[in-house]
Design brief:
heterodimer; A: about 270 residues; alpha/beta; Rossmann fold; 7-stranded mixed β-sheet; about 30% helix; B: about 375 residues; mainly alpha; ABC transporter involved in vitamin B12 uptake, BtuC; 3-stranded antiparallel β-sheet; two-stranded antiparallel sheet; about 65% helix; binds adenosine-5'-triphosphate; binds magnesium ion
Amino acid sequence: MTMLTPDTTSHTTKQPASIVQGPRADGQSPVLRCRKITKRFGGLVAVDQVDFDVYPGETVALLGDNGAGKSTLIQMIAGVYRPDGGVIELDDQAVDIRSPLHARDLGIETVFQDLALCDNLGASENIFLGREIPGKAYGMLPGLNEAKMRAEAKAVLSELHINIRNLDAPVRTLSGGQRQATAIARAVYWKARLMIMDEPTAALGVPEQKKVLSLIETLKQRGVPVIVISHNMQDVFEVADRLFIMRRGRAVADLRAADTDANEVVRLMVG
Amino acid sequence: MRARFFRSSSRIRSMSVNSTSLSSTIDDDNQSPKGLAALAGRMWAVLFLIALIVFFSLVAPGFFDLFNFQAVGANMAVLLVLGLGQTFVIISAGIDLSTGFVMGLASVASALVMQSLTGYPLAVIIIAGLATTLLIGIAAGAVNGALVAYMRVPPFIATLGTLSIAEGVAYVLSGGPPVSISTRGLGFFGNGFIAYFHPEAGISILGLPNGVSGSAVREVMGFFPLQVFYIIILASFCGWLLGRTRFGRHVYAVGGNPKAASRAGIPLAWTLFKIYVLCAVSASLAGFLYVLRFNGGVANAGDALMLSSVAAIAIGGASMLGGEGRILGTVVGALVIAVIQNGLVILGIDPFWQYVAVGAVIIMAVLVDQAKGKFLS
Ligand SMILES: Nc1ncnc2c1ncn2[C@@H]1O[C@H](COP(=O)(O)OP(=O)(O)OP(=O)(O)O)[C@@H](O)[C@H]1O
Ligand SMILES: [Mg+2]
C-alpha cells in the first residue's frame, strides 16, 4: 500500500476514469457508494460520472473550486436532485433517493450550504421540522408534544455545548453561529448513518468555526461518517481523514489527508 | 490497516487551536428589547380594538350595550369566516383572491338546492345545503390548489382565474337576482339565539319561550347569537389546526422558507394544496352562513368582503410576505373592522366613511408591522 503520486496531466484527457485514488481499507464495504453518478442542468454537466465512496466512521472532505459540482453531488445524495445517470448504494443496496424526506428516512442528514432553516420558526421547531413529535392539544385533541420537543432540543443543543436561551425565538434573531449550530443539531439529533455538511463554517466568525469543527469531531467520535464541503484548507486538514477533489464536474483525486498537503490540494483543484 | 487508513489527526490538530476548549463560544445574545417590541407588535391590534371600543362607548350612545355587542358579533361572522381560511393562505406566503366569489357561488348553489327541496323536513334541507356548500368549497379549492401547488401558477393569477370562473358560474346559476328560500324555521339558524328571555314567559333555550306570540315577540330578548356560536366553533377549529397541529406547523414552515421546508421533508405541494382547499371551504362556509342569515344566496354576496377579510388578517398582525400570523389576530382584526362599521352607523356617519377608516387602519397596521421588523432585525 504505497502512496500514489498524483498525475495531474491525466486530467486534461477526456476519459472520466483514472482519478488519483487513495488507498482503501481492505474488507470494509462503504456506507455510501456512488457509481458514475451524473447530473446535468440543460447543457451543463454539473456532475460528470463521478465515483464517490464513504467508509464507516470516516470524515471525507469534498473539495473543488466554485462551481466544481460539490453541492450538486451532495444534493443528489440528499434527495434534492435525482441523478441523470449512475447509481447510489447505501450499505451495498442500490437506492433511488426520491426526495429529501426519503433521504432522511434512509438516515442521510444534511446541513445545506444555504442553511435550510425556517427563519420564522424557533430553534426547537426547526430541529423537529418535518418530524414533529405528536402529542395532545388542549389535553384532548391530537396535536404536538411541544414540551418534549423543547426538552429534546435543549438536550441535543447542550450536548453539543450550544447555548440558545430562547428556543422559541425565531431563528432569524440568532447569530450566524447559533443558526449553523441549530442546523447541525437537527442533523445530529436524528442519529444519521451519514452526515453531509455543505460549507458549515462559511460566513462564521473564527470561534464559531472552531465550534463547528468540534461538532464534526464529536460526530467522528460517535462513528458517524461525515461528508464535509469546505474551502478552508486549515479546517479541512483539521477534521478530514480523506480528501475528494472535484474539478468542473469530474472527480480528479481521492487522497488520504495524511499523505498530502494544502499546496498539492490547491494544485489539483485548479488543475 | 484500518487504523492506518483512518489517520489519527492528532498531528494536525495539535498545531491548531484546541477546538473543544471554545465550547461555549456560540452563546446566546438574544436578550433584548426585541422581546418587548415583539410583544407590543403582537398586542397592537388588541390595544387598538380596546381604544376603539372606549372611543365609541364615549361618543356613540347605545354602542356600549350587550345587545349592540351581540349585533357586532353576528355581523362580523361572514367576514371572519372568509378570513379564517385566508389566514392559512397568507401565512403560506400566498393569496386567494377567489374567496369572495367562491362564497357567492356557494351561497347561490346551496340556496338553489335548498329552494328545490322546499317541503322536505328542515334537517334534510339544511344538510343538503351544507353538503352543496362543502362540495363547492372543495371543488374550488382543489382547482386553486392544483394550479398553485402542482402547476406552480402564481397564487395571484391562479385565484384570479378561479374568481372569474366562480363569479360567472354563480351568475349563470342564479340568473342574476338573489335566490331566496322560503322554508319556515330556516331563519332561526341564521338569526336565532342560544337563549331567550321574556319578562312573563321566562327563559328558553334555542327557541322562543312557550306561549310567546304576536306583538309579545318584540319583548323577547335574545342572548348569544347562533352566528357568534358558529364563528366560535370555526375559529377554535382553525386556531387548533394552525397553532397546535403538524399541519399548522408546516403552514408556517412553507411560508417562512419553502425550500427549507421541503428539504426538512415536508411535502411542499401537498401542504399547499390542502391550504387552498381549506381556504375555499372556509369561503364556502361563509356563503352558507350568508344563506342562513338572509334566507337566500346571491352571486356577489362576498364581492366586497374578500379585501375586508385580508384587511382583518393584516390588522391581526399577519405578514403579507408569509410566515407570520395567527387565527386570534384575524379574529381581532375582524372585530376592529366590525366595531368601526358599527360605531360609524350609530354615529350616523355616512357608511361609506367606513371604507376610509378601514383603509387608514390597514395602512397603520402595515406601518406598525414594518416598525416591528426594524426592531427585530
Ligand atoms: N439548479 C441549477 N440550475 C442550473 N445550474 C446549476 C444549478 N445548480 C448548480 N448549477 C451549476 O452547476 C455547477 C455546479 O454547481 P455547484 O453548486 O454544485 O458547485 P459547487 O462546487 O458547490 O460550488 P461552490 O463552491 O461555489 O458552492 C455550476 O456551474 C452551477 O452554476
Ligand atoms: Mg456549493
